[in-house]
Each structure stands twice: as C-alpha cells, then as structure tokens.
Amino acid sequence: MVIGITATMMAVEIIAGILLGSMALLADGLHMASHAVALSINAFAYLYARRQAHNADYSFGTGKVNALGGFTGALLLMLFALLMAGESFSRFIHPVPIIFDQAILVAVLGLAVNGVCAFILSTGDHHEQGHPHPKHSLDHNLKSAYLHVMADALTSILAIFALLAAKYFGLLWMDPAMGILGAILVSLWSIGLLRTTSGVLLDRQGPERIRRKIKDCIEKDNDSRIADLHLWSIAPNVYAVVIVVLAQHPLSPNQYKARIPTNLGLEHVSIEVHQCEQCEIR
Questions:
Q1: pLDDT at 127 over 80
Q2: Which of 12, 24, 81, 231 could make an SS bond with 186 (beta carbons 3.0 to 4.6 A apart)?
C-alpha cells in the first residue's frame, strides 16, 4: 500500500517540480522515487525471507535478509541524498523561476501523503515482535522503510518552508538551500542505519544486557565460569549463542542450558563444557 501511494505522489511531485520550477519540490519527488525503489526492496526482502525460511542451505534461517534489505535501503538513501545536494548546488548557480502557489499546494499534498504512509508502517503487523513502533524495533528492514517515509516527510516540510520564504520574503536562495539541508539530514539517517545493519551482517556481538544475563545465570553456583561467549543476531530480536564453560564439577550442557531464561530471544544455543580441576573458579 505504501509503495503504491509513494509511487503515485512521486510522479506528481516530479512533474510539478519540473513544470513549476521548484528545486525543493523536484528534490522531494526524486527522493520519493528513491524511496519507491527502496520500499520495493524492503518488500522483496520479506517475501524472500518467508519463502526460503525452511531452506536447509541457510544454517540459521533467513532472518539476516531483513538486515540486508535495510542495508540496501540505507545505501539508496545515501545515493539520492548526494544527487539532491548536487542538483541543489546547481540551482544556486543557475536559478529558475518558480510558480509558488501551485508548488506549495503540491508540497502540502506530499506531506499529507507521507503522514499517511508513516501511520501505515507504524501500525503494521510488527507488534508481534514486542516493539510497537518501528523506530524502536530491531527490524532493520522495517526501520529502513520507515526512515525512507520520514525522510520524504522531512523534504516535504523543507520544500514548504523554502517556497513560503521565497514567495513572501523574496528569499529565492532558500529553495536550493533546503534541498542541501535535506540531503545532509537524510545522509545522517543513512549513516546510522548503515552502521546498525552492517553490524548485524558482520556478526557483531549481541547486546551487553543479554550477554550479562547469560553469564550471571551460568556462573551462579560459583563452581562454573564462562571462558568464551559469542552472541550474534540471526533475525530481528532473535539470537544465536555459543558458550564455553569451565567447571571443577561440570554439569551437562543441557543442565547449563536450562539455567538460561527463555525470554532472551535465543533460538540456537550451543554449550561446550570442560572440566577444569586446576583452574581458578571465582
């Protein structure tokens, strides 16, 4: 639904930006074009992950397709931010006349459409993950889609501000300036999403709170200690963990596994146990 709405508004803003001479409006339309593509990638990521969920070729399932979709969306955000900045700089040098009233009307319509799309994404089926809002969710694919829509809303707001300033105060330079400001803010969002999704794709260590909880549960009897622990994300809010336990009087792996709470999102738990008569157990 969001893809269809975004693509329709994209066409309206690009045509209006060209005909009415507004760089801010054209930038918003081009931004929506990038987001229509990115949202399609996000949708494909969900479809692919679902269809391949039981494919044995994927050792830990297809949950990381989610992060890959988010990473790709972030790259597209960065690319189109650079294009927006380049076109805005050119408008400083070669300004064009703007038909203000119609341009403002289209920009307001674009903002309303972005608000509807953001509402749709923020009330979707991701409630089941325990994060009722995508900004707080570890679903990076959904977060990518949400950021694309919010970036669209931002460029619409900047376009309205620039057009009003140009119409009523004669500040024609505000139109390309808002294009540059929008490009900077979108780039910052993109960098943040690239950082988080690349960490998932490269198996960065999972949250410290989960690692600490595992350690406290395994070492609670003062006879065992964790010598090695690797925790990594394999899907949104789902983790795999490999643990090496040293103990003077070791228990079985299943006994240690039973100590770990079941509400930590651990889907794959591997525990290796070694007896250590001479080692120091705190």
A1: no
A2: 81
Continuous segment of H or E residues that includes residue 224: strand 224-235
Q: What are the distances in angstroms from CA 19 to CA 100, 169, 230? A: 11, 22, 57
Look at the chain and report how many structural domains it folds into.
2
Q: Which residues contact 13 (CB under 8 A, 6 or more apart)?
A: 25, 26, 28, 29, 32, 106, 107, 110
Domain co-membership, 113 together with 76: yes
pLDDT (mean) for 8-14: 81
Q: Which domain holds residue 94?
A: 2-201
- Does residue 222 lie in a domain region? yes
CA atoms of 133 and 45, how far apart (whole Å): 20
Distance CA(167)–CA(182), nearest Å, equals 20
What pLDDT does 258 receive?
94
As a whole number, the mean pLDDT across the chain is 82
196-209 core/surface letters (b: 16 or more CB in 10 A; e: else) = bbebbeeeeebeee
Across 33-67, b (16+ Cβ under 10 Å) vs e yields: bbbbbbbebbeebbeebeeeeeeeeeeebbbbbbb
**H/E stretch holding 17:** helix 2-20
Q: What is the pLDDT of residues 81-125, one digit of tens each?
A: 888 788 788 877 877 677 778 778 877 888 888 888 888 887 754
Closest CA to 225 of 243, 209, 211, 241: 243
CA angle 31, 191, 264 (to 5 degrees): 115
Please determine, for residue 128, whether its predicted confidence score (pLDDT) is greater than 70.
no
Q: What is the pTM of this model?
A: 0.71
**pLDDT reading at 147 higher than 70:** yes
Does 280 map to a domain? no
More confident position, 246 or 277: 246
Contact between 28 and 17 (Cβ < 8 Å)? yes
Residues 164 and 77 in one domain: yes
